[in-house]
Amino acid sequence: MKTIKENIKNEIIINKSKFITVIEKINNINEIAEKLSNIKKTYKDATHYCYAYIIDNKEKCSDDNEPSGTAGIPILNVLKQNNLTNILCVVIRYFGGIKLGAGGLIRAYSSSTSEALKKTTISNIIDGYTITIEFPYKNIKQINYLLKDINIKKEFQTNVIYTFHIETKHFQKIENEIKKICTIKTKKSINLAS
């Protein structure tokens, strides 16, 4: 499976109607309602907010009062054709006064989604973790050596606290070494984009 590396917004005009496509990475279904709400606030005078999402083998789409099957399904189909997951795509339509018909709407929503995807980087999803470790200052050189190629968020308090993302296969290689030196405070599974 694949996902996008960065969120994207794109705008196209088709027969005087404006189609604004917003594509965002999502990590869980709970984020969707808030993201949709924010988009509706940002584009509060739009005619339609059609969307599709795919996450963890769950998918859903909405025509938002466009004729049935003319908006949500075409958006979802483009996402599926690109083998995407962990993604929400919302196409906001400002009606321009010219009716597009069912075929025209299907093409418009598909094109909007495809054009937006051309502006972002699509990458493979890799299993990984977000790790937080805590250790005394005396072990900083050892830990830095083990994590030398990893981007780390560092906090210096009574002890040193490092938080980082790492692929599962790389973590398995160093996990025992880390455990010999310090405590793993949290370990949460995530999907990383390659």
- Do you know the CATH topology of the largest domain? Ribosomal Protein S5, domain 2
Protein structure class: alpha+beta
The overall number of domains is 2
Q: Which descriptor suits the 3D outline?
A: elongated
Measured by DSSP, the beta-strand proportion falls in 35-45%
CATH class of the largest domain: Alpha Beta
Proportion of residues in helical segments: 25-40%
The chain-level mean pLDDT equals 93
Question: What is the oligomer described by this structure?
Answer: single chain
Elements, N to C (H/E): EEEHEEHEHEHEEHE
| Helical run tally | 5
- Report the radius of gyration as a whole number of Å: 22 Å
Return residue spans where pLDDT drops below 50 for at least 5 consecutive residues.
Answer: none
Task: Describe the protein's architecture and organization.
There is one protein chain. The chain is of the alpha+beta class and 194 residues long. The protein folds into two domains: 119 residues, 2-Layer Sandwich (Ribosomal Protein S5, domain 2), CATH 3.30.230.30; 69 residues, ACT-like. Chain A, domain 2 (Alpha-Beta Plaits), CATH 3.30.70.1150. Helices cover 31% and strands 40% of the residues. Strands 1, 7, 8, 9 and 10 form a five-stranded antiparallel beta sheet that branches. A five-stranded antiparallel beta sheet has the order 2-3-6-4-5, with helices on both faces. A hairpin with a 3-residue loop joins strand 8 and strand 9. Helix 2 runs parallel beside helix 3. The mean pLDDT is 93.
